[in-house]
Design a protein that fits this description.
With 191 residues, this protein is an alpha+beta fold. The chain is built from seven helices and six strands, in the order H-E-H-H-H-E-E-E-E-H-H-E-H. The protein has a six-stranded mixed beta sheet with strand order 1-6-5-4-3-2. The radius of gyration is 28 Å and the shape is elongated. The N and C termini lie far apart (75 Å).
């Protein structure tokens, strides 16, 4: 067997060229990276809104249940063309309406259908009240930690059972709207 070693003409200068090209690629990439990244931007919220990421861990389980319940409620509404009653949601074992260990742990909320597609909770013990507005395609969740005002008196004064509640009514009653990150992105893309 014959072995012959091949020696480069410039004796290792190829390594310098490769190192130079790698350094050049890194420098150009680091200079162009700020122009290629997506800008998150600072989104300001109204006084009645809070990002879900800014909430304490305790209400997150209830909000997660309400997000899933919204999808099921919308499906039932589109199928039957009527808003499901709380008893039907409880019979269907839909959290947070079903009275199970999670219901017990989250404050034993009694749920009421306060307007078509709007479900409000009243905790048995002192705690946060929640409101799920399923009238729109996107989930709309509100909460009231101070239990300032219920929406029930405002609804009792209206005689039309098909009333669509407005954001102003929620704000006037002292409720806080939960904003999800996809809500902010969706709003930013529409403008």
């Amino acid at each position: 067997m014959i072995t012959q070693s091949v020696v480069s003409e410039n004796r290792g200068h190829e390594g310098y060229w490769i190192a130079f090209l790698c350094a050049l690629i890194l420098i150009v990439g680091s200079l162009l990276l700020p122009f290629n990244s997506a800008h998150d931007g600072h989104h300001t919220l109204a006084k009645h809104q809070v990002f879900i990421s800014d909430l304490a861990p305790s209400p997150l389980a209830m909000i997660a249940d309400l997000r899933l319940a919204h999808e099921e409620i919308r499906y039932l509404y589109e199928t039957n063309q009527t808003w499901p009653e709380v008893a039907k949601l409880e019979e269907g074992w839909l959290a947070p309406f079903v009275k199970d260990k999670s219901w017990d742990h989250q404050g034993k909320h009694q749920w009421l259908l306060v307007a078509p597609g709007v479900y409000q909770s009243e905790p048995v013990t002192d705690g946060t009240r929640y409101l799920l507005n399923s009238q729109g395609q996107a989930v709309d969740i509100w909460f009231d930690q101070a239990q300032q005002a219920s929406l029930l008196p405002a609804l009792a004064s209206t005689e039309d059972n098909a009333t669509v509640l407005s954001t102003e009514q929620f704000i006037d009653a002292g409720w806080i709207q939960v904003i999800f990150s996809d809500d902010v992105e969706e709003t930013a893309h529409h403008h």
